[in-house]
Write a structure and sequence with these properties.
The complex is a heterodimer.
Chain A: E1 3-9, E2 12-18, H1 24-31, E3 50-53, E4 56-59, E5 72-74, H2 76-79, H3 87-95, H4 104-117, H5 123-130, H6 140-154
Parallel strand pairs in A: 1-5
Antiparallel strand pairs in A: 1-2, 3-4, 3-5
Chain B: H1 12-17, H2 32-42, E1 43-44, E2 59-61, E3 67-71, H3 80-92, E4 99-103, H4 120-147, E5 154-157, E6 160-163, E7 166-172, H5 173-177, E8 181-182, H6 222-226, E9 242-246, E10 256-260, E11 271-275, E12 278-283, H7 286-295, E13 297-300, H8 313-319, E14 324-331, H9 334-339, E15 343-351, E16 363-369, E17 372-377, H10 382-393, E18 400-404, H11 416-430, E19 434-437, H12 440-445, E20 453-461, E21 467-477, H13 493-497, E22 519-527, H14 547-564, H15 569-576, H16 580-592, E23 609-620, E24 623-634, E25 639-650, H17 657-676, E26 706-712, H18 730-742, H19 753-760
Parallel strand pairs in B: 3-4, 9-19, 17-18, 21-22, 25-26
Antiparallel strand pairs in B: 1-8, 2-3, 5-6, 6-7, 9-12, 10-13, 11-12, 14-22, 15-20, 16-17, 16-19, 20-21, 23-24, 24-25
The chains are: A alpha+beta, B alpha+beta.
Chain lengths: 155, 761
């Protein structure tokens, strides 16, 4: 049976009718028509679907829409804008990180929460925080450079 | 709901006009008759046919003076779009910023082969350079007529032509032709795809004059990705669109014999599309389509389990009937030389099936409306997908348009082309636009695979310790069991599932190097596929098709011979390599990595943590790469960290050094992943690599700490490719470094911790 849910996404409120067990990913993409996050695996193994729920990274592909509750949802589009970019977005552009770019939500949303909570992280701490995220194009070296650069910017 | 531009709003005409008015300037001391004849000769308002022999098929000057370049290849994330823009801007003498490159849309580009074989610049850029040079020549001639100044007394700055001795005599490209089409015939070689070449009368600039080519201009597509403003193929939406999902058998080769559509009665809009082995569902909402695919009750035919036990894969290859044998290179008399050898060194190497395992499974959207088929696809080859769709749907080619959009990664003949065909069949069956995305287990489990293979090498040594003969033979599944594109139904799952006649091709390759031995033979052999139809182990092109496997073996073996002869691996290579550019990359890598000359293995380490260094080199269609790997090994766990790479890379003229370095870094990291982790697993019934746990790839904690790239620029040599060459020597460089560290030779990929630990114990 479908139910009504009110989702707050990047500051805007939306009411949808959906199967309570439907993953949040499809609420965002299909019900609300957002172009990100992305479907990568549906198994919480890759990170391409990552959003923030009240600031904490969550894999929207396995997060049921009924479990979101009142949590504020932030997607990559809500992290920053060209006019007011998040330091990670600036660093990503400066380091020219992505190749295909399909994995980008996982790295940026995970790193954004990490850098907010951990000032002046070591390289090992950054790697550990980003462990498990997938990038098939092999841009990891640039990702690491960008996160370090953003860490310095937010220092 | 839609962010994409409707097809009708995205015509060449609208691009050309750019919202501005047609501007045809009539000025200068020239008779109207002359002017009209030149204008008519070179420029026209009607669109010439979109054929390879028309300049207008590649270049247009818009009403505002900006330039549109129409490119029949596309950028897989390496910044090719920037490089092509640089080439066009350079030849046309316009600012880089004023060039926009449109890629991979069959409605406005000709078939230049798509993303294929690292030919984006090598072939695609060459054609765009010739087209832009011809456009410049024509524009200068038009300006000469308008200004009454001889062409050789004119110069161009930023798209404005002016007389050398009187700068008041000037006219812009926009005034010459802006908003109209070039009407200029090119000398087309009558070939499509990668070999397409259609020069005009113009000669391109001398590389010494280049100002834009060679500059490290940044990509403009990074910011839209970073701010979530770029639409991937997965994000395209059209009105009335429904969602599709495919259903594959649990036993490869089984087909549905009974399908109970009633099992979907509770799912809104759910429909089944079934045709022989082809089985899919559609529903109004994506989540509903996913659930429908899971809930559909299907009875499958009893199929014999088609595969051998995975443990016996390499025995299977060894014993399999050879379907085709080809001697790629031979000199001297190898057989006789081995008869007189004082010593023979031989070895055998093994490489598994590997998956494209793209970041997301393939997605395509197909709309069939008013007799026109439009497909948005992440394919690398939109023009071939156009042909495949025309044949699959039995409609004329000119009724099909394929629009390339960035897909979820692409490294060759992935699942993208199959997805386009499947989506088309679903869309036709339900009479609505269908967006189909595969599920993860299909992306990894059912994509065309990089072929598994074995490689035998032997060297004959004389009494003086000199190599007198060398033989290298690869035997494996074909890299074109299904072809490099979905242009023919027999090369697609949709075709094979629906029963079209099969046509498995034979292709492999031989090492690309310049070792000169008196007697040398390089051979490949292909074997039949394990399952001839609709196989999740059908083999095809995966980044640097068969290059990593061949050069893992050949460059490991060269190292083995060097070690057997107690020679330094680089000194030994340089003793035999003949081509100066090959020598140069090896020396450049050695110098940058501060290579210490000594034989491998090193003998000065004890304990569990050891390290070593290894070199490998290869050519690829004109490009030469040497890779030095420095690795750390924990003997107690078998875990390898490929800590540092030094890559010397010569691809002739460099168009964009920063883009090239990024491209090489990605090659190396993906190469490390494929070497250390990647192996498609299967049981007797099916592929069991279905996600990131069962098909692990490299993690950021295992990423090399350093990739130092030494670029060797040869502006005088036409550029060759870079998208794949540097992945080619990575596996051998790592294997050789492991040997250097431990004295143990690992001859089977991947070098997973278990395998390394057991080899070292």
């Amino acid at each position: 049976m479908t139910q009504q849910f009110t989702l707050t996404v990047n500051g805007s409120s939306h009411t949808i009718t959906a199967d309570p067990d439907m993953p949040l990913l499809y609420a965002l993409r299909d019900n609300l028509g957002l172009s990100n996050p992305h479907f990568g695996c549906g198994l919480a193994q890759c990170g391409a679907c990552t959003v923030h729920l009240d600031g904490q990274p969550a894999r929207s592909c396995i997060t049921t829409v009924s479990s979101v509750g009142d949590a504020k949802i932030t997607t990559l589009a809500g992290l920053g804008t060209p006019e007011k970019p998040h330091p990670l977005q600036t660093a990503y552009i400066e380091e020219q990180v992505p190749q295909c770019g399909y994995c980008i939500n996982g790295w940026l949303m995970t790193a954004a929460a990490f850098l907010r909570d951990k000032k002046k992280p070591t390289e090992a701490e950054i790697k550990d925080a980003l462990s498990g995220l997938k990038c098939r194009c092999g841009t990891h070296i640039s990702i690491l450079k960008a996160v370090k650069r953003a860490a310095e910017m937010t220092g | 709901m839609t962010k994409f531009e409707q097809s009708s709003a995205f015509t060449r005409r609208s691009i050309l006009l750019g919202g501005g008015a047609l501007v045809v300037s009539v000025g200068g001391a020239v008779s109207l008759d002359t002017l009209l004849s030149i204008q008519t000769a070179f420029a026209q308002g009607a669109k010439p046919p979109l054929t390879p022999d028309q300049l207008s098929s590649y270049i247009a000057v818009n009403a505002d003076g900006t330039v549109s370049a129409f490119f029949g290849k596309m950028d897989m994330g390496h910044g090719l779009v920037v490089a092509i823009g640089q080439i066009v801007a350079e030849e046309l003498d316009v600012p880089f910023k004023s060039v926009k490159v449109f890629m991979g849309d069959t409605a406005n580009s000709v078939n230049q082969g798509g993303a294929s074989g690292s030919t984006g610049i090598q072939n695609g850029g060459k054609q765009m350079r010739m087209a832009a040079a011809e456009a410049r020549r024509v524009l200068v001639e038009m300006a000469a007529s308008q200004l009454s100044v001889p062409a050789d007394k004119l110069s161009i700055i930023d798209g404005v032509v002016s007389a050398n001795n009187d700068k008041s005599k000037r006219i812009s490209y926009a005034h010459l032709i802006g908003g109209k089409y070039f009407n200029v015939q090119l000398d087309w070689n009558k070939q499509y795809g990668n070999p397409l070449y259609a020069p005009g009368k113009a000669q391109p600039k001398n590389p010494s004059e280049h100002k834009i080519v060679g500059q490290p201009i940044k990509r403009e597509d990074v910011a839209p990705k970073v701010f979530a403003q770029e639409d991937f193929v997965t994000d395209i939406k059209v009105p009335g669109m429904v969602h599709g999902r495919m259903i594959r058998p649990a036993v490869a080769g089984a087909v549905p014999v009974k399908v109970d559509e009633g099992s979907l009665k509770d799912i809104p809009g759910a429909k089944v599309v079934w045709d022989k082995g082809f089985l899919g569902v559609v529903a109004d909402k994506e989540w509903d389509a996913i659930q429908a695919a899971q809930k559909l009750k299907v009875e499958w035919s009893q199929a014999d389990a088609p595969f051998p036990e995975q443990a016996s894969l390499y025995d299977h290859i060894r014993k399999a009937t050879v379907r085709k044998r080809e001697v790629g290179k031979e000199n001297g008399n190898v057989d006789d030389a081995f008869k007189v050898a004082a010593r023979v060194i031989d070895s055998e190497y093994e490489w598994p099936f590997q998956s494209h395992a793209c970041m997301g499974p393939a997605c395509a959207l197909v709309e069939i409306k008013d007799g026109l088929v439009t497909c948005w696809s992440g394919t690398q080859k939109s023009h071939f997908v156009q042909e495949g769709l025309a044949l699959t749907l039995d409609v004329p080619l000119d009724k099909v348009r394929v629009i390339w959009k960035t897909g979820p990664g692409s490294y060759g003949r992935s699942d993208a082309d199959d997805c386009a065909m499947d989506a088309a069949i679903l869309a036709r069956a339900v009479g609505k636009p269908v967006r189909l995305q595969y599920m993860r287990e299909q992306g990894t489990g059912w994509d065309p695979k990089g072929p598994a293979s074995i490689h035998k090498a032997r060297a004959a040594i004389d009494t003086a310790g000199k190599v007198i003969a060398y033989e290298f033979t690869s035997k494996g599944f074909s890299r074109i069991d299904v072809n490099t594109n979905g242009g023919k139904p027999h090369d697609t799952l949709a075709g094979q599932m629906r029963g079209v006649e099969l046509k498995s091709g034979d292709g492999f390759g031989v090492p690309a190097e310049s070792y000169a031995f008196d007697h040398k033979r390089l051979v490949w052999e292909t074997i039949p596929p394990l399952l001839d139809r609709s196989s999740p182990l059908r083999s095809a092109h995966l980044r640097d098709p068969v290059g990593p496997q061949i050069h893992f073996a050949s460059e490991s073996f060269i190292d083995e011979v060097a070690a057997a002869l107690k020679a330094d691996p680089i000194e030994f290579r340089l003793r035999h390599i003949k081509e100066p550019r090959d020598v140069a990359v090896i020396k450049a890598a050695a110098e940058s990595a501060k290579w210490e000359t000594r034989p491998s293995p090193r003998r000065d380490q004890s304990g569990n943590k050891v390290s070593g260094r290894g070199i490998a080199y290869a050519q690829r269609n004109g490009t030469r790469v040497a890779v030095i790997a420095e690795v750390d090994i924990d003997r107690s766990t078998g875990k390898i960290w490929a800590r540092k790479f030094t890559v010397a890379h010569d691809c002739g003229q460099i168009i964009n050094p920063d883009g090239l370095v990024k491209c090489i870094e990605g090659n190396v990291v993906q190469g490390v992943s494929r070497t250390l982790w990647e192996e498609v697993t299967f049981d007797r019934k099916a592929v069991t690599s279905v996600d990131w746990l069962t098909y692990p790839i490299l993690d950021i904690t295992e990423t090399p700490g350093e990739v130092n790239v030494v670029l060797i620029n040869h502006p005088e040599i036409a550029p060759s490719g870079a998208g794949e060459p540097s992945i080619r020597p990575v596996a051998a460089a790592i294997a050789n470094a492991i040997f250097d560290a431990t004295g143990v030779r690992i001859r089977r990929v991947p070098f997973s911790p278990d395998r390394v630990k057991s080899a070292l114990s």
